[in-house]
Amino acid sequence: MKGNMTSRTLLLFLALMVTNSIAIMDKQTYIVHMDKTKIKSSIHSQDSTKPWFQSVIDFITEVSVQENEEEEIAPQLLYVYETNMFGFSAHLSSKQLEYLNQVDGFLAAMPDELLTLHTTHTPHFLGLQNGRGLWSAPSLASDVIVGILDTGIWPEHISFQDTGLTEVPSRWKGSCEEGTKFSASNCNKKLIGARAFYKGYEKVIGRINETLDYRSPRDSQGHGTHTASTAAGNMVNNASLFGMAKGSASGMRYTSKVAAYKVCWPLGCANSDILAAMDQAVADGVDILSLSLGGIAKPYYNDSIAIASFGATQNGVFVSCSAGNSGPFKSTVGNVAPWIITVAASYTDRSFPTKVKLGNGQVFKGASLYHGKTIQLPLVHANTTGTQRTAQFCTKGSLDPKLVHGKIVACERGMNSRTEKGEVVKMAGGAGMLLLVNQGEELFADSHILPATSLGASASNAIRNYIHSAKSPTASISFIGTTYGDPAPVMAGFSARGPSIVGPDVIKPDVTAPGVNILASWPPLTAPSLLKSDKRSVLYNIVSGTSMSCPHVTGIAALLKSVHKDWSPAAIKSALMTTAYTVNNRGSPLLDIASNTSSAFANPFAFGSGHVNPECASDPGLVYDITNKDYLNYLCSLNYTPTQIAIISKGHFKCSKYTFFQLGDLNYPSFSVSFDINGTNSSVTYKRVVTNVGYPSSSYTVKVEEPNGVSVKVEPRNLRFGKLGEKLNYSVTFVANGGTTISDTSTFGSLTWVSGKYNVRSPIAITWQ
User: Fold this and answer.
1) How many Cβ atoms from other residues are within 10 Å of residue 741's Cβ?
2) Is the peptide bond before 299 cis (omega within 30 degrees of 0)?
3) Hey, CA dihedral for 309, 278, 573, 323, is it positive or negative?
4) Active-site residue set
5) 3-state secondary structure 129-195
6) Buried b (16+ CB within 10 A) or exposed e, 467-486
7) Half-sphere exposure of 219 (CA within 13 A, CB side)
8) Rounded to an integer, what distance in angstroms lies between the CA atom of residue 414 and that of residue 620?
9) DSSP letter string over 43-100?
10) pLDDT band (50, 70, 90) for residue 3
11) Euclidean distance between CA atoms 418 and 413, whole angstroms
């Protein structure tokens, strides 16, 4: 996570960690067919306000209670079908299946089955399919080495076994370093290298406590194992977190070789260690580097990751970094150097919903990875259950057991972790927890150790009002399980936002990718909630953060590297950006969950160019390539001193005295322009060069969506290519319309080159100052 940084350490974006256990018993998924006419009539006569499928689920739950089946877990609704068929799918026990016979309109229940191998949901959501396109055998055959800078790795995990893999590439120069509970034998043809960097960290913190962490590449925190498997872990069948999110777990480029560089420890990551690891990784021979870590944005010459990444880029290594978890506040985005791809986080259509019902009948949707039967108990707010000022946040020792025993406690977000609040409630004798917030409708699915759920701001306000006004407030929490089909993508509220405070002429972040509720590998000795009192052991965990979205893009970049071996890092980045999409699975513009309304649209300062689209990125039509000299000329346009530029270029470059370098002329696949809000007819012209990587003979026509308050002129408006690799220039003039009233500080548009199946899109951001 970002924040609380020292000048010598960087904190992981360990964001919003998640997970929870379920007793699976004899449950399995069934597809339930219902008679529409009978079920509608039957349900309408009982409760016309309740969705019919919820009435069926509630009926099953009620019968279970009447039968005194105390150990029975509530049915888990997965899908609702109302178009091609009428019914639903749900996770049911054999007894719950029998109770369906008592429901009017029930026709039949068919056991679910897998017709083909099913990947983790994010590859499916991203359009990756076995045997096709980027996941075809030829695309996966070549050796691509992915380097992960993180908290280390759990080498014995099945995601990193090497059965059936090719030998270690002869070009690989890395090694498998020995240390605490780690030896050279832990590496294989999948995990081909592992190193630990801690000298800088130990200088600041002192020697690593080997009872809390491993002084070796072995992972004690889970974060590094999770990110490595997301990018390049093996495809593993029947993965789940206690039965949730069940499917085949797979990295984006699951045949890649993995090299783990442990740079992060319990209290953070030292810049010196990160620089050393990146330097070593490039020397070892990695093709892609993934860093789910960072600090506040700094001038590039004062940013260790920016500096090391520039060197990596010079050597042809693609660098992917997380944007940070300090959203939704503006200008919080980190890792903003233009030679880095900066990745935001968004939701997929999978969720883990709960239903909170108050004693007055109000019902609200929440989210949780806890799984169990519905509880209905007295409800109290934490600020009335203790004498300490921090009681409302459910901090350690703040709650009075006499006031919370056997009750559901409403805790405010802040001061400690979300799962720790639940632990505090449980230790004080509480029976459940509602996690309340003041802003945004983000629903965090966490691995609570007691019945608990998060809620959005509107629900939180209603619950506070109810508690304060009701004489004897009560609440129930129902845990629905895994569901699919939500509108998606949706921008995560925690995802850091632009504009960049370092380089406002470049839109950051660059793209968004799945970063919420991501299932991936986990060390079996690390609790899924990261709580010491949590003794559960898992092989997979569900985690959220830009730390999770970053390795998705890392793995996709590895896929593109496989099919386009001659592409530069900038070309790969351009392909990912210009093919990204900005509409959801319902055809509507991407939404921002950070808003207190359900219809607030996100913008490029949240998602960059849009949501990554791997298959389209493999065939983008045109790319915006950038040379190392182009990047250095860009630094000249920032008026960096020769010393500052030398820090980045290693002293091999001087700005020309005879060339004018204009901000915005970097051949970037997006446009960011600043205007004085009181200016009249002020204008700026940017230049771009596009390279043909589509059809040898092709013609492109420009399509412009003008931002509010600005007119956009492109010259020429048509580009005609005669061969692959041909480069053509164009210019874009932005003119601030005099007399226009601008109510927003930023307005947005786009510029798209269109040719047949190709739509090479670049976002435009106008900042009014």
Assistant:
1) 7
2) no
3) negative
4) 150, 223, 547
5) CCCCHHHCHHHHHCCCEEEEEECCECCCCHHHCCCCCCCCCCCCCCCECCECCECHHHCCCCEEEEE
6) beeeeebbbbbbbbbbbbeb
7) 29
8) 44
9) HHHH-TTS-HHHHHHHHHHHHHHHTT-TTPPPPEEEEEE-SSS-EEEEEE-HHHHHHG
10) very low
11) 7
- The owner of tokens 């210009």 is 578
* Encoded tokens for 330: 């503006």
Question: 156: which 2 tokens?
Answer: 């014995």
Residue 454: both structure tokens together: 């998060």
CA 147/CA 757 separation, integer angstroms: 34
Q: Where are the alpha helices (DSSP H) in 217-323?
A: 223-232, 271-284, 304-314
**pLDDT range class, residue 178, cuts 50, 70, 90:** very high
Q: Which pLDDT does position 117 carry in this prediction? A: 18
Cis amide prior to 499 (ω within 30 degrees): yes
What pLDDT, on a 0 to 100 scale, did the predictor assign at position 85?
47
Q: What is the DSSP string of 518-567?
A: EEEE--TTS-TT--TT-----SEEEE-SHHHHHHHHHHHHHHHHHH-TT-
Within a 10 A sphere around the Cβ of 195, how many other Cβ atoms? 23
Report the pLDDT value the prediction gives residue 711, as an integer from 0 to 100: 94
Q: Which helix (H) or strand (E) holds 634?
A: helix 628-637
- What lies within 8 Å, CB to CB, of 221 at 6+ separation is 12, 14, 151, 152, 213, 264, 266, 526, 530
pLDDT in tens, 439-488: 888 898 999 999 999 999 999 999 999 999 999 999 999 999 999 989 99
- As given in the structure block, the two tokens for residue 694 are 């589509």
Pairing status of strand 490-491 against strand 145-150 = unpaired
Tell me the C-alpha distance between 280 and 275, whole Å: 9
Beta strands in 185-256 (DSSP E): 191-196, 236-241, 244-249
Q: For 91-108, what is each residue's pLDDT tens digit? A: 788 888 888 888 888 887
- Give yes or no for a contact between 449 and 419, defined as CB atoms under 8 angstroms apart: yes
For residues 340 and 296, the answer to whether their CB atoms sit within 8 Å is no
pLDDT at 44: 47
Radius of gyration in angstroms for the set of CA atoms belonging to the chain, rounded to a whole number: 27
Residue pair 667/688 in contact (Cβ under 8 Å)? The answer is: yes
Question: Which residue bears the tokens 């080495």?
Answer: 145
How many angstroms separate the CA atoms of 549 and 124, rounded?
A: 15
Q: 42 is written with which tokens? A: 């039957």
What one-character-per-residue DSSP string does 304-354 give? HHHHHHHHHHHTT-EEEEE--S-TTSTT------TTSEEEEEEE-S-B-EE
Q: How many whole angstroms separate alpha carbon 609 and alpha carbon 13? A: 22
Contact 186/164 with Cβ under 8 angstroms? no
Phi then psi for 583, rounded to 5 degrees? -125, 155
More confidently predicted of 143 and 498: 498
